[in-house]
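Notes continue from the previous slide.

Worked example: a multi-chain complex. Inputs as given:
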Amino acid sequence: QKEVEQNSGPLSVPEGAIASLNCTYSDRGSQSFFWYRQYSGKSPELIMFIYSNGDKEDGRFTAQLNKASQYVSLLIRDSQPSDSATYLCAVRGVGGTSYGKLTFGQGTILTVHP
Amino acid sequence: NAGVMQNPRHLVRRRGQEARLRCSPMKGHSHVYWYRQLPEEGLKFMVYLQKENIIDESGMPKERFSAEFPKEGPSILRIQQVVRGDSAAYFCASSPPVSPYEQYFGPGTRLTVT
């Protein structure tokens, strides 16, 4: 089982729709979760982080965390063509000196079509 | 407020040569991380450094790779005797002391080994 798993997609949604991106993780002790956006040929850009169970909203983005189910998701409301990118889920390491290590999923390719 | 800076942005080396990749963290950031993204693969953690200290090098290949973050100057990722399999995008990230878990990425160095 991979440490962090995402559906690779591609996920295609029409402009204005809600895009839902999902991620599961294997280490039950994980505490911190991050969503990054990466445009083709560019570097990852931090969108949101979430540490507590429940929802966290920032503009059109909502991150959802369910530690019991080891599941974290990202919702993008009113999707725009400019949101088309690869979305990376990352989980911070726990224990010892691994607290600085982010483990990334393979990423989900999102395409928003006009 | 300048972001994370990396240079060179593109680097071409012949097999057997050395590659030196440099990273200057964001102003006020004292934690540096290196990641590698191989073609068609995910982003993989390599090493976590603070000034003059290697905190976690669990992702570094055992041979040919080394990293440092001296008291003065940028962090350096050094690859000796490069091979074709080292061709990848190498990203540096930094985080502030007060929130060491939120990592902001630089533009990356694209290494091509011929």
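Summary box: Residues 47 and 57 of chain B are 4 Å apart (CA to CA). The radius of gyration of chain B is 13 Å.
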